[in-house]
Amino acid sequence: MGKLTIAITGANSGIGLRAARMMAADGHRVLALCRDPRRGAEAVATIERGELVAVDLADPASVDAAAAAVAARVERLDVLINNAAVFDQTVREAVITPAGHELFWATNHLGPFQLTALLSPLLAASPHPRVVNVASKGLLTMPRIRIRFDELDRPDWYTPTRAYYHAKLAQIMFTFTLAERGGGRLDATCVRVPSVRLDPGRVRALPPLLRALYAPKNRLAMPAERLGETYARLARGEGPAGGYLDENLHRVEAPAHARDPAARERLWDLSQQAVGDPCWAW
């Protein structure tokens, strides 16, 4: 396998940082897409050959600028890992972005959707392009979850847990449709991530009560380094080609709604419209 050019969002902490370090250590060129320029710069300083690209996935203009910055640096992109997500349980009420979308939906689905579209020409220039999206094992506790097509940005049904898993379901559906549209020219994979151990800094930033409640779960959660290895393996093309995989790269069954072709197509059309109808390479 030759050296790859890889872009990964949320590379300043957690799984994204560990994966970026591992992939860079293997000799690949890693573009670290981070929301906070200061924290991103600190992280990139620990990533061999890492390059910082600032992006706020909740801001369509920022996504446009980040995609343009990537295109100005590279002629092709071999792997895009849409890792970044927000799951801040202290956000008890819905936050609506300036673009008019609920924050978790904008960050965890619309932003990755828009970024993937804008980078698709660079991915199409790769001989073996790969897109890796990220869902959550927590969806197993919600077998009847559906996309709330008519309520996406309404605050009255919001809780951080509902909003998070709603967007993660959308990532599975997006992956399946992207693979179909790629017609064999694109390896699109969604990885089901289990509970991951938070970095000490993130734990300290939690409110005291939430920190105490989260401590037992955090001790039992999977280390970020272990999941970083999963990302790095996917970037190398290990495991089954495409589909919905667990952290060991075994195929797992997606929620029923994600397997509904009509629902997936409706989500694609809605997402396209929400991010300005970008052009795709496939």
UniProtKB/TrEMBL annotation:
Residues crossing the lipid bilayer are: none
* SUPFAM superfamilies, A to Z: NAD(P)-binding Rossmann-fold domains (SSF51735)
Per UniProt, the keywords (alphabetical) are: Oxidoreductase
- Keyword Oxidoreductase assigned to the entry: answer is yes
The record's section on Pfam families has:
adh_short
Q: Does the keyword Oxidoreductase apply?
A: yes
State the name under which the record lists this protein.
SDR family NAD(P)-dependent oxidoreductase
Q: What is the lineage of its organism?
A: Bacteria, Bacillati, Actinomycetota, Actinomycetes, Streptosporangiales
